[in-house]
């Protein structure tokens, strides 16, 4: 049984790469020796979730009690996606519950707005996609223009592809630089920027 569980929570209109990028990083890390099990989950049992670019994804279960929870973004400038999740309030509440239970919480892109609604970014530095910077400034301690922000038990990443850098950083932080380097090389990904925090 893996020592660490990671869950990536999906919702209607999430951005595909925000979730699938970190998923692939974590799966490759497990194959490289990290004691890590990763699942794509939803809040309620469902057969399919439709992402922002119409990719249909079959979740692997429902949100449990992960050690690491990744919250993707997507759809902040539309009526669906992360904006709908914030307005509904159910996902932010679930994220807050996971945090209270001891999970490390990480957002990608406009997923930071879900963390903000959950009350996790007050007094903290955070990053998000440029379309949500003004909105995030109302909630976060300081919005920084960085690819990855690590504030201990709450992390955030800027736009879309930065989710890969976020996941690689989490792999390095939790399982060592050798595994993170191996995964980056396997994925032919050149890591960009220093981690802020």
Automatic annotation (TrEMBL):
Domain (DJ-1/PfpI) ranges: 7-172
Record SUPFAM superfamilies: Class I glutamine amidotransferase-like
Origin superkingdom: Archaea
Gene3D superfamilies membership: 3.40.50.880
CDD domains in the cross-refs: GATase1_PfpI_2
Signal peptide per UniProt: none
InterPro entries xrefs: Class_I_gatase-like, DJ-1/PfpI, INH-QAR
Protein's name according to its UniProt entry: ThiJ/PfpI domain-containing protein
Species, as recorded: Natronorubrum sulfidifaciens JCM 14089
Lineage: Archaea, Methanobacteriati, Methanobacteriota, Stenosarchaea group, Halobacteria
């Amino acid at each position: 049984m893996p020592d660490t569980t990671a869950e990536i929570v999906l919702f209607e209109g999430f951005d595909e790469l925000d979730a699938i990028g970190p998923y692939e990083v974590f799966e490759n890390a497990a194959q490289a020796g990290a004691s890590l099990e990763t699942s794509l989950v939803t809040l309620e049992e469902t057969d399919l979730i439709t992402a922002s670019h119409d990719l249909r994804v079959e979740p692997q279960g429902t949100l449990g009690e992960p050690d690491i929870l990744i919250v993707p973004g997507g759809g902040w400038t539309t009526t669906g996606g992360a904006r709908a999740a914030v307005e509904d309030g159910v996902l932010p509440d679930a994220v807050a519950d996971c945090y209270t239970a001891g999970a490390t919480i990480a957002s990608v892109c406009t997923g930071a707005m879900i963390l903000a609604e959950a009350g996790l970014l007050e007094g903290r530095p955070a990053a998000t996609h440029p379309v949500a910077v003004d909105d995030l400034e109302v909630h976060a301690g300081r919005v920084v223009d960085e690819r990855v922000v690590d504030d201990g038990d709450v992390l955030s990443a800027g736009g879309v592809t930065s989710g890969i850098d976020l996941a690689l950083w989490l792999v390095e932080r939790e399982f060592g630089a050798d595994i993170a380097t191996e995964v980056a090389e396997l994925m032919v990904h050149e890591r960009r920027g220093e981690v802020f925090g």
